[in-house]
Amino acid sequence: MAIKVGVGVSVDGDPLQAAREAARGAKLNLATGKIDLAVVFSSIEYAHSTVLKTISSMLGVENIVGCSGLGIITGEGIFKRGLAVMLIDLPADIYLNTACVRSVNPTSSTYAGKELGEKLSYGFKNIRRHLSVIFSDGLIEDGSGLLHGLQEKFGRSFPIAGASASDNLAFKRTYQYFGTETLSDSACGILWGGKLNFGLGIHHGWKPLGKPRQVTKSSANTVYEIDAAPAADMYKEYFASDIPKLRKELKRISIFYPIGIYLPGEEEYLLRNLSSIEDNGALVFQGDVPKNSRIRLMIGTKESCLSATSRALEEVKQGLGDKQCDFAFVFDSVSRYILLGRQVNEELRIIKEKLGKKTPFIGLYTYGEQAPLESIGYHGVAHFHNQTIAVLGVGG
Amino acid sequence: MLGASGSLAVGLLIVLLAYKMERIRRLQSAIDKLEKSLDEMDEQAKLIVRTDMELNKTQEELDKKINSLNALQRLSRAISTTLEESQIFNKIDAAALSDLGFEKACGFLWSDQEKNFLPQINIGYMQEEMRTVLLALELDKNKFLELMSSDKTASSISRLIDPAFKDKISKDFLAKTFILSPISPKEGNNGFIFAGTDDPEMLINEGDEELFTILAHQISRAIDNARLYEKTWRAHQDLEIKVEERTRELTQALNDVRAASKRKTAFLSSVSHELRTPLTSIKGYASILLAGKLGELPPEAKDRMEKLNRHTDELVHLVNDLLDIARIESGKMAMKKEAVDLKSAAEKVADLLSVQIKQNNLDFSFSAADDAHSVLADRGQLERVLINLIGNAIKFTPQKGKISISTQKSDNMIQVDVADSGCGIPEEAQEEIFEEFYRVDNPINQEVRGTGLGLSLVKHIIEAHGGKIWVKSRLGAGSTFSFTLPKPA
């Protein structure tokens, strides 16, 4: 029996009205009585617990997970302000559990990841675990830590896909949804088990440029030295600029010229967005950069971004093999949204074309994405990414 | 001491060392070259990155400008074709706003009645946020009114407004970067439109201000047009209402006239009937007296009696005509329609009037077109028409004049023209001669007696047949009376 899914979308200016409209639409499209899970993505304007309470009471569903984003991606369009609800009705041989951890601060993000893993595993004693989907606060400084914690619980190569919640580029507060609670500095997730099929695809399309360099001093997401010189020197040299000028161009540099970490055996570099430049010349990135990492400056174009979208979706198909894709999640980096500009609609066209007209999906723009680089064959190790599009296709 | 073999070994080691050192030197040289190449490649990469950065910036600027211009063009087209004031602001949509570089917008028109700003559009503000904006407008309405009266675009980069107020707008309208442009229609309420964004990357310049000012002007002109259209439409509506009222009044007046006419006809009919009975008696007694059945009358009495008899005849004639008119008007006179040959009818009438024709030496002629020989009419009534028209022609045509009757086909009717070379009818009288008791003021009419009912009766008879009658005449150049009657099937 296939998984049944219904999606509802609203852009109504009144959050409560939007909640009603989206819930009604999702229920109408689901057309069955049973709801095992509701996934909610929205822009921050709709991040109110009353919105979740409305959805919960209207649909009689308690299992609600999701998060906020710069915008939502739906089959109806990309909306900078909007609310999307996906309702999932699972057959008896597929299981899921949802869980949440609060107060994930940088010093304990690994611990929080581990705790989330433990909570998610509850009730999965004799059931084969297949996949975990997590939604975390995109402003957690060490996004990789959370993932490492989860991997400690589930195993290094356990498939994990996830989205780091974003806001309206103010980088002030992002929201995670769990039940009828609207949280921040938290992470919630879903653990799937049973007879589940899925395909995961992740690509960014950025290309290496310039000579390889080595991180000689770093701690978590802060790089102090590259090639034994202050880390900022690398950007100073490339852009013939000093730190104040670099800071002025930080957003552009972060989007167009991230650094790529070379991972032995992986086809693509792991990208890290530059989030700030310290006075002492240290560079702070949106994900961890281990000491001794071989790094390159990366360069991206709209064309390469769109081609990465196609490749990610092809990988989803390959992952599912001959199995049907019943629904999909799209986690797309806010950087790509900015880089693509008006061509975001071209990306949406590719997503719809590759997933097929009948496959329901919802997505959002994120501050980070979690997925294995080499996802085909379940062997990849999940990483915390920047600048990527991660697509998860699930079938019964 | 080393033996020979030892020396050889040392020698070999030296050679090997030298070889190794040479290899190391070569490898080092290759590494140096590789490093140099990498450095050179890196230098090129730096150039590429810098150029790419510049290109990206230029591209962004260009994209922004093209997007803005496209959006402005789209909006202008949509706004300028809107004639409903309430719909003008609604033409601004989130997509166009985003292309202009903003994510939120609101527009207001000042209401003199309510002494407040009334919202016209809201894009990107949640309900709660809009309440904050409205509250700010309420508190600072005078400053905003002042800004509107200056008719100049203000923005987060302009120096037109004082920095404190600028900061306040930014805070109240929840937008770090904004442009605010007055909407100034020529008449009626004015207002302003605001667009803003919190995107720190969105930097506006004078060009953006200019584009936004153009948009505000477009809105102002569209409001002008809509208001003018509304005004015209209202005037049109008023006019239609007035026309309806007048039509109603006229219809009422017409009905009154018809009722009066009906009453008149009934009155005429009854009076005529009442008159005819005593007239018949008078005529009868006069005839008896004239015939001398009651004894011969003295010559003076006979002369007076003959006059009495003649006047009685005229009175009977008048009463009969009046009765006929009344009958036709009330629809009581049935027309026995049949195909009547026009020539024979005309000749019969001419025969009746031959004495007068001869007396006046008139040239009487009749000609009928091939397809206009006969009409569908009541024979007696047609002869009556011809008697009246030919009789009039004889009366007003001087000696040796001409009277001609001709016929022709006109659409589905037959037209009969009775033309004379008489004195003609003044233009101002041509319409009225068909009215009852109307007589043209000329010397002949002063001499010759008449009732003034002949042409009126003719008109009634023709119209009762579904035809029309009219006259063409010029003073001194004769008259042509034309009438139409249906042609036989």
Secondary structure elements and pairings:
The complex is a heterodimer of chains A (396) and B (489).
Chain A: E1 4-10, H1 15-30, E2 37-42, H2 49-59, E3 64-68, E4 72-74, E5 77-79, E6 83-89, E7 94-101, H3 109-121, E8 129-137, H4 143-154, E9 160-165, E10 176-178, E11 181-183, E12 187-194, E13 197-203, E14 207-219, E15 222-226, E16 229-230, H5 232-239, H6 243-248, H7 250-256, E17 259-261, E18 270-272, E19 274-277, E20 283-285, E21 294-299, H8 302-320, E22 327-333, H9 334-340, H10 344-355, E23 361-366, E24 368-372, E25 382-385, E26 389-395
Parallel strand pairs in A: 2-3, 8-9, 22-23
Antiparallel strand pairs in A: 1-6, 2-6, 3-10, 4-5, 4-23, 7-12, 8-12, 9-24, 10-11, 13-26, 14-15, 14-21, 15-16, 15-20, 17-18, 17-21, 19-20, 22-26, 24-25
Helix pairs in contact in A: 1-2, 3-4, 8-10
Chain B: H1 4-80, H2 85-88, H3 94-99, E1 104-111, E2 116-123, H4 127-139, H5 141-150, E3 154-155, H6 163-172, E4 177-183, E5 191-197, H7 206-290, H8 299-329, E6 337-341, H9 342-352, H10 354-359, E7 363-368, E8 374-378, H11 379-396, E9 402-410, E10 413-420, H12 443-447, H13 454-464, E11 469-473, E12 479-486
Parallel strand pairs in B: 7-9
Antiparallel strand pairs in B: 1-2, 1-5, 3-4, 4-5, 6-8, 9-10, 10-12, 11-12
